[in-house]
Design brief:
Length: 651
């Protein structure tokens, strides 16, 4: 999901008994849906045939399901309590829920009578987003179980990734969905205000029935369409190697299809754009950004493997459904008018498309380690946006104002408190903004800092290797670190331990800069001892009258934050000479002293601006005698004011 830190206003069934197939992923689940949308009632009536393979070495005596939509059943749910905003007061029709009508094993044994809600994360008795059923017989390692589930999903008015607005329907997190059986236990977390998802790969098949006037889009490839005698149409979809399925329907969509072909690496897919008629003017911006996303991610990490990619443009008023990812299907975001230089639709399109890699194919646990999808994807998004739009203007290039993505992301980190670290359960952050700035901005900038440290070529190889090694699997933070260390051949524990596990900051500064003329020699000189002393001694006992002046220049650099990172310091002298000093950055401060016949002019820590995590660039340099003191002071003041302003509105 795309979080906006700054208001941009201003600115399968196939598995049943079959052997594992040789697909891209190891299919653990298969879902076969039959769903009917009732637009007037705002409901979806669904039937789900589910098969689960116990792919673990431990027997399973129960199943656990996500029933995400019950987050919107009342303002007592964990989601609504954590969110705690005005959405908690809603008209009756705006609430949503999922009601399970029937739950049986494929041999007809009823399980509904043993279904119970559980609250593994917070014990909230009013939360019904996770359910457990005890099984009549244990599923042994390598064994399968089939279920038949009938349910009715009442959509809420659009709220976080799902719902209706008028005749626009985004049907996400809509079906009873199995958790992940790992290490002998179910990993099945409640739906939280700031958490996303985790599920196993498999085969998804759907028959979606809607009134004929609706235009439909969904995860995967459309395999059939039929018109029914009751004024409805049924669309069938199929997709392997994914872990979720979402769909949308709206009569006001205009559908655009375009082939996307890339020679190196080989990619052939169909772009399907569902653009609301109110935003038709923006269609080309969406299309171009999607082509850029396909090209950039395919070239940087690995070829996009699916036959379709569907972009959904939410209806006006449904922006809460915007900026959300599902496998092969995502929602972007725009408004009826966004100036070309404000790259909102572009950024959201590239970001959400990118989740096909980080979340879609590389299936990390978004509940527990959200940075692995959002942080890595923010890093990828920055790289793509800078590549296509220019690093100095990749976010905004409008009315003379140019802002690149890196400064934009830095704004979030600069103003942050030291409350939380990057790796943490999504629901354990002090608040939504701390979650966002850590897992998105700080994690993205961390990877950019690592890139500058390792070099772009090495970092590219790290990212490609991580994708190649972990696609269609469930990696953890440790797996990412291991890939980075293996590929770079360096011990990076010191880096990741700090940045991932501590809420502190990186801030290095030049804290003192001075130059003093060295007093002429005074005292007893060795050179004037002995029998020739008199001859060597100039008149008055001094020998320096004709010697050039000598200056003692001092530079003090300091570590103001807790994070330790080796630093380069550039010291420049009055005559233009400079020296580059290297400091391991461990102590709280370090002094460099020079005796020269010229004074020091300036000193700068991290002159290459490689440490984008440094929370204050203003203290990175000092000038002894600023040549344009007034202008420099004014510019510094302006920057400080700008940073201060933006850190306040960065919520
Ligand atoms: Zn995202």
């Amino acid at each position: 999901m795309k979080k906006f830190l700054i208001g941009l206003g201003i600115l399968a069934v196939l598995l049943g008994g079959a052997a594992l197939q040789a697909g891209l992923s190891r299919p653990v689940v298969s879902y076969d849906f039959h769903a009917r949308l009732r637009p007037d009632a705002k409901t979806v009536e669904g039937r789900e045939t589910l098969t689960w393979l116990n792919d673990s070495p431990v027997p399973a005596g129960e199943l656990q399901f996500h029933l995400y939509l019950n987050a919107f059943k009342s303002n007592r749910s964990t989601f609504m309590r954590e969110r705690g905003d005005s959405a908690a007061v809603r008209p009756a029709d705006d609430w949503g829920q999922i009601v399970i009508k029937s739950l049986k094993t494929s041999d007809g044994t009823d399980l509904l009578s043993v279904l119970e809600y559980i609250r593994p994360d917070d014990g909230n008795p009013d939360d019904q987003t996770v359910a457990r059923v005890s099984l009549p017989a244990t599923v042994h390692p390598g064994g399968r179980i089939g279920l038949e589930i009938e349910f009715v999903y009442k959509l809420p008015r659009v709220i976080r990734r799902s719902g209706f607005e008028g005749d626009f329907f985004l049907v996400g997190q809509w079906f009873p969905k199995l958790g992940v059986f790992q290490n002998g236990a179910w990993n099945c977390h409640q739906y939280h205000a700031h958490s996303e998802f985790f599920a196993d790969f498999g085969v998804f098949k759907a028959e979606l029935t809607v009134p004929e006037i609706f235009v439909v889009g969904a995860t995967g490839e459309r395999t059939g369409t039929r018109t029914n005698s009751d004024g409805t149409k049924t669309y069938t979809y199929y997709q392997e190697d994914v872990h979720d399925f979402a769909w949308t329907a709206c009569p006001a969509f205009r559908e655009f299809r375009e082939k996307f072909v890339l020679d190196s690496p080989k990619v052939e897919t169909e772009m399907i754009l569902l653009v609301h008629q109110a935003h038709l003017g923006q269609k080309e911006r969406y299309a171009r950004a999607l082509r850029q996303g396909l090209e950039f991610y395919s070239r940087s990490y690995g070829p996009y493997p699916y036959k379709t990619i569907t972009l959904v443009d939410p209806a006006p008023g449904a922006s809460a459904a915007g900026g959300m990812e599902y496998p092969t299907f995502f929602t972007s975001l725009t408004t009826s008018y966004v100036p070309r230089g404000i790259r909102l639709p572009e950024m959201v399109t590239i970001h959400e498309f990118g989740h096909n890699y980080w979340y879609g194919m590389v299936g990390s646990n978004e509940f527990e380690e959200a940075w692995l999808d959002e942080g890595i994807n923010t890093y990828s998004e920055i790289k793509a946006m800078d590549h296509y739009y220019g690093a100095d203007r990749s976010m905004i290039d409008f009315a003379g104002l140019r802002i690149g993505e890196v400064p934009y992301q830095r704004l979030a980190v600069i103003g942050s408190g030291r409350f939380d670290q990057i790796v943490k359960n999504a629901w354990d952050y002090i608040g939504g903004s701390s979650y966002s700035l850590n897992v998105y901005a700080k994690a993205g900038l961390m990877l950019l800092t690592l890139e500058k440290w390792l070099g772009e070529d090495v970092m590219d190889k790290v990212m490609r290797t991580y994708f190649e090694t972990w696609k269609f699997r469930h990696p953890t933070t440790r797996d990412f670190v291991r890939v980075a260390e293996d590929v770079s051949g360096r011990d990076l524990g010191w880096f990741f331990d700090q940045v991932l596990a501590s809420p502190d900051k990186l801030d290095y500064a030049v804290t003192d800069l001075q130059a003093k003329e060295v007093a002429p020699f005074g005292g007893i000189s060795d050179e004037v001892q002995g029998p020739d002393a008199k001859a060597a001694l100039p008149a008055g006992g001094r020998k320096t009258s004709a010697a050039p002046k000598t200056y003692k220049s001092e530079v003090v650099v300091a570590r103001l934050g807790e994070w330790i990172f080796p630093q380069e310091v550039l010291v420049t002298f009055e005559n233009g000479d400079n020296v580059r000093e290297y400091w391991d950055g461990r102590d709280r401060w370090k002094r460099f002293v020079y005796y020269k016949n010229v004074k020091v002019r300036s000193a700068e820590v991290d002159p290459g601006r490689t440490m984008v995590l440094d929370v204050n660039y203003l203290n990175n340099s000092r000038v002894l005698e600023p040549r344009k003191p007034v202008v420099a002071k004014f510019a510094a003041g302006l920057m400080k004011w700008f940073q201060g302003l933006l850190s306040v509105i960065a919520i």
